[in-house]
Amino acid sequence: MKRFAWIWLFLGLLIGSLPAVAQNNPYDIDDECYAIFMRAEALVGKPGFDAVNDSLLQCALLKKDAKAEVLYYVGRLRQVSQTARDTHNDALVDKAQDEVKAISLQLGYPQYFYYSYELTQSYYYATNRPLKMMELVQEMHEYALEHDDDYGRWMGDRYMVSLYVNQSDFVSAKRFINRALETHATTQDSTVKRQPICRLYCDLSDCYPIGSDSARLAINKALETQDVYFDSLRCQFYLAKFAALDYDLPAYNAAKEYCLSSENLRSVAPAGETLFKIIDDVFNHTVTQEEIDDLHLVREQKYLAHILEKNGYKEYAFLLGKKMINELEQKISSVNEGHVAELEVRMGMEDLSADLEEKSILVTRSSRLLGVMALLVLLFVMAFMFFDIRNLNRNKEIDRQRINDLKEANDRALAAGAAKTRFVQNMSHEVRTPLNAIVGFSQLLALPDGSFPEQEKEEFSNHIINNAQMLTMLLDDILNASAMDSNQYKITYEDAEYHFLCRAAISSTEHRLQPGVRMIFAPESEEPFTFRADPRRVQQILINLLTNSCKHTTQGTITLSTSLTERPDFVTFTVTDTGTGVPPEQAEAIFDRFVKLDTFVQGTGLGLSICRDIATLMGAKVYMDTTYTDGGARFKFEVPVHPVNDPMNNLK
Amino acid sequence: MTPIYAQDYDFSKFSVLAVDDIPLNLLLVEKMLSRFNFRFRKAANGQQALDAVAEEKPDLILLDLMMPGIDGFEVIRRLRANPETQDIQIIILSALNSNEDVVKGFDVGANDFIMKPIIMEKLLSCVVTHLQLAQAKKG
């Protein structure tokens, strides 16, 4: 229930912060793209979403609509941040966010850069990790500072306000509200200037004791600054609460009617309706203990406690107060306060470093004036400062490191985005090539008897069969990748014999050998060895490695060898070929999705990336051995003998 | 009426060049056109295609687009820029199928565009038409 409430809170924030949207195509993208976008919108969180969203990308690329392209990546992030909630697959969410960050900056829509943080945060909130949320805010804040971007600073402060208000830490909330208001007042950025600040004043009102003059002043300020529709709704909700507190029935009823007549009350105040119902019951003297127990948001509880007390329900008010304290304690214990404090200090870094510079200037001046005596004092001070500065430098180093990391992540996501675009464009080519052989040779076979000699006809049939297999592998790759994305990939552990797996892999790849190339099986020992693994997956990876070697080896040999001793507690499979090889600097890149060293060799560029994903799921490791330099390439695949995830293993 | 591709033609005076980096595609085109008696040559990439044209000017080129090195578009551009070779009939055979690629193909000077997978009847009637056009040009 509480999680649910938070989602509404975020939704409210989002809707409140977007400029008023109306018209048929508020995103101002191509109409056809917009139609697809709206269809995708309706499917967020559901299985059909990806397909519709993919067609959005196609449409965007076709129409060359950059914004629609960005919206495709935003859509992916939204989908992933929903679907990954049950599985806690952070990597997927982070990756999707990196993509949005990179693409939005690259194509010039920085608002989605910041929006990606909002979506990612809501994921971390839903999976109950406030610390990770704070880190995200910090990262965003750093980016904003680095780029001197008031919008980012403003959004960062807004998030902090939401976080602290939600934790009922009103002292901290107040600090960030003031900072956000100051940014808003002093900024030159017209986007920030246009942002509604009414909500901040409403939050500010909550930071003061209920019914106090300061709280009322804040609401008056909110009324003055109300701008978008949600603002007036929110203001009316506060007015209703204040009127109830004062037992001003006409004012309370008017404001209440206004709120209840709106469909959007839940977005502004998730517990609004319940609160009104209870207040009505308090005034009619029909209120019950159960009703009060059902109200969960601390903010509304605070008001209700006061209203109950003023209307003679002292016992209920007391019980509610106790419940509030319990809920708060739970919340606080779930947050590692020490870490939060540390993060805060780092957020305030810039102020600190300015202070320190001032200090050192003062110290230098005094040294000139006071001579040797002062020098001693200076030395003392310097010694003291040394530790301070060293600390600060270290922190700065960390910060610089983080910014660099962020930049690298951006670059990586850019490359990934470009690779994905290439993939969509290439896909039709990849599918059509085997299809061409299948369709073409079938037509030749369908010609009247006598058109071709029997021997040639047999050759045609073989071409058809080979290409059909190629097409099947291609489709398998795509299906595997999408299963991996949606976490439908399951590993089933069984007893597996390693040489049997090798022979099976060899027999299903031998026919791919190019003429004159030999495939050799070279086990370290002939002894059979049985271990716990998912035989199908191990075989799949071996087949993939061998198939790759076949594609890239035009002469010489492809060797599959095994070892139980190379890495203790692991079965090591090694595939060595005498083919074109891989430059060492590409050794890791080839495991990325859609990366192909040679565009003109058949394949989707998904194979190795799938291998790595599967290996990771099994606790295994697949990599290119860069120490091997004898021509060709060597890949290693190390599978644990006692996999951690094996239920049998856990029984022991 | 007998379909255009099923009639008998004497193309013995003609020469056709097929260009594709995938050998199987070349084999397929060769087999599909085997009922015609023109001289048939093959090239595995753009450079080989240009060399083959320099060696002996064909009447018709069946050209793939996506090839390593000099791609199909570039081959057409170079042939059209040379007065010696600018009148060769060129049919693109490609798995690239976006409108953009088709338009670009015609822009650089292709005479026709056939999408892969190749439908045999389409290929044959297309080849017949363009060889007849080539003959008309020769006069």
Kindly describe this structure.
The complex is a heterodimer of chains A (652) and B (139). Chain A has helices at residues 2-17, 31-43, 49-63, 66-83, 90-106, 110-126, 130-146, 150-166, 170-186, 190-194, 198-207, 213-225, 229-246, 249-260, 265-268, 272-284, 289-293, 298-310, 314-333, 337-347, 349-445, 454-485, 498-507, 535-552, 607-618, 647-651; strands at residues 494-497, 517-523, 530-533, 556-563, 570-577, 621-624, 634-640. Chain A is α+β, with helices and mostly antiparallel strands and 652 residues long. Chain A has a domain at 494-651: 2-Layer Sandwich (Heat Shock Protein 90). In chain A, helix 4 (66-83) packs antiparallel against helix 5 and helix 5 (90-106) packs antiparallel against helix 6. Chain A is elongated, with a radius of gyration of 32 Å. The relative contact order of chain A is 0.05. Residues 1-23, 336-343, 349-356 and 366-370 of chain A have low confidence and may be disordered. By secondary structure, chain B is an alpha/beta fold. Chain B has a single domain, classed as Rossmann fold, CATH 3.40.50. In chain B, 42% of the residues lie in helices and 17% in strands. Chain B contains five helices and five strands, in the order βαβαβαβαβα. Chain B has helices at 23-32, 46-55, 72-81, 99-108, 120-138; strands at residues 15-19, 39-43, 60-63, 89-94, 112-115. A five-stranded parallel β-sheet of chain B has the order 2-1-3-4-5, with helices on both faces. In chain B, helix 4 links the parallel strand 4 and strand 5. In chain B, helix 2 packs parallel to helix 3 (72-81). The two termini of chain B are 27 Å apart. The chains are: A alpha+beta (652), B alpha/beta (139). The A-B interface holds A 62, 425, 428-429, 432-433, 435-441, 443-444, 452, 456, 460, 463, 467, 598-600 and B 21-22, 24-25, 28, 31-32, 66-68, 95-98, 115-120.
